[in-house]
Amino acid sequence: MRRGAVLLVLFFLLVGAGAVSGQGSSTGDPRVAAQLDRLGLRYKLMDSGNYSITFDVGGGRSQVAYIMGKTETYKGLEIREIWSRAGTFDDLPESDVVRKLLQEGASEKIGFWSIEEADNGGWTVYFSVKVPVYLKDADLRSLLELTANVGDGKEAELFNQDEE
Question: Which of 22, 53, 108, 112 is 20 to 30 A from 157 via CA?
Fold first, then answer.
């Protein structure tokens, strides 16, 4: 009986620890919030812990850039992703569209195009930049603006719309 009680307590401790670590994702990274605040950029903290920033990209258009709240590391280098969605196809894009995205990605100064299966079953096209977390404020602003502008350009070209 005592062994069963100990196992039950361990189970609840593990479940509780998992719940606490899962909650951390929705709190965001305070380093991102501090940088965005210093830059005077208005942002929304999403349930995922990511940040969204809406940019006026000119011509009456706007585009959202996102900053991932979580980071990854490679040999001690902490990296985060910045991205902007161009749009979502109902089906996997035609090969000529994919080829063009790959070719354009190869000529970008920084960043690349990605295609991911969306939760609704479609295929989302987005422009992504992976950067070290220690970017200067001005560099972060430049990369956010670049990402939003590139994403918006492709949104206009492929989807002929402005959904942010």
Answer: 53
CATH topology (fold) of 28-159:
Yope Regulator; Chain: A, (3.30.1460)
Q: CA-based diameter of the chain, in Å?
A: 72
Q: Is the pLDDT of residue 24 over 60?
A: no
- Helix 30-39 vs helix 137-159: crossing angle, to nearest 10: 90
Angle, vertex CA 79, rays to CA 82 and CA 119, nearest 5: 50
Residue 118, CB half-sphere, CA atoms under 13 Å: how many? 16
Domain ranges of the chain: 28-159
Nearest-angstrom CA–CA distance, 17 and 24: 11
Nearest-angstrom CA–CA distance, 125 and 93: 9
136 DSSP β-pair partners: none
Which amino acid type is present at position 139? D
Determine the Cα–Cα distance for residues 74 and 68; give it in Å rounded to an integer: 16
Encode pLDDT of 31-68 as tens digits: 999 999 999 999 999 999 999 999 999 999 999 999 99
* pTM of the shown model: 0.81
- The pLDDT tens digits for 9-18 are 333 333 333 3
Report which of 53, 57, 89, 56 is spatially closest to residue 68, judged by C-alpha positions: 53
